[in-house]
Specification:
CATH topology: Muramoyl-pentapeptide Carboxypeptidase, domain 2
Main location: endoplasmic reticulum
CATH architecture: 2-Layer Sandwich
Number of helices: 4
CATH superfamily: Trafficking protein particle complex subunit 3
Family: Belongs to the TRAPP small subunits family. BET3 subfamily.
Helix content: 40-55%
Number of domains: 1
Distance between the termini: 58 Å
Protein name: Trafficking protein particle complex subunit 6B
Structural class: alpha+beta
Keywords: Endoplasmic reticulum, Golgi apparatus, Neurogenesis
CATH class: Alpha Beta
Radius of gyration: 17 Å
InterPro entries: NO_sig/Golgi_transp_ligand-bd, TRAPP_component, TRAPPC6/Trs33
Strand content: 5-15%
Length: 178
């Protein structure tokens, strides 16, 4: 192999390793948060699940704030909300998940739907219907990341996610108007 081919192969392998490590770390964080909550209360009801989702969303929020700060350091300022959302779908998403969002839709009134047809953090789960119930706990961190990134840019938002068919996921972002 020539040096260029070797360097290219090394970059691909490093990227794959980074991706696998991030996915594994995420799964372990989710597992840890749920186990800690269950251990402290001796069980798991809907209130406990809500606490876990809130903890994971908060972790994601802080990560999103830090990531967007680094990513926008040398970027020109954004023209409008849509420009910010395009940045989230392309640059931000690519940095975190190694691919862009598949589809961005908006009603031009502050609501955006980001669709990822092969969401990295759901690809390790089986496609059966029984696993759809477990999907929300694997989405909370990502919802928090998007909300944290938008917050650091100056947009308060509510970010929710839904899964109807694994591993496809839709994130709904509603910008809060003051």
């Amino acid at each position: 192999m020539r040096n260029k081919e070797v360097a290219c192969l090394e970059r691909k392998l490093t990227g794959m390793t980074d991706e696998a490590l991030f996915e594994f770390l995420h799964m372990e964080i989710v597992s840890h948060v749920y186990k800690e909550q269950q251990a402290s209360n001796g069980g798991m009801d809907n209130k406990d699940r809500a606490v876990c989702v809130s903890v994971l969303e908060g972790m994601g929020f802080r990560v999103g704030q830090g990531l967007i700060e680094r990513l926008t350091r040398d970027s020109p300022s954004f023209k409008d909300e849509l420009d910010i959302m395009k940045f989230i779908c392309k640059d931000f998403w690519t940095k975190v998940f190694r691919r862009q969002i598949d589809n961005l839709r908006t009603n031009h009134q502050g609501t955006y739907v980001l669709q990822d047809n092969k969401f990295a953090l759901l690809t390790q789960l089986s496609n059966g219907k029984q696993y759809l119930d477990h999907a929300p706990k694997y989405l909370a961190f990502s919802c928090g990341m998007v909300r944290g990134a938008l917050s650091n840019i100056g947009l308060d938002s509510v970010v929710t996610a839904e899964v109807s068919v694994m591993p496809s996921c839709k994130f709904q972002v509603v910008i809060q108007k003051l």
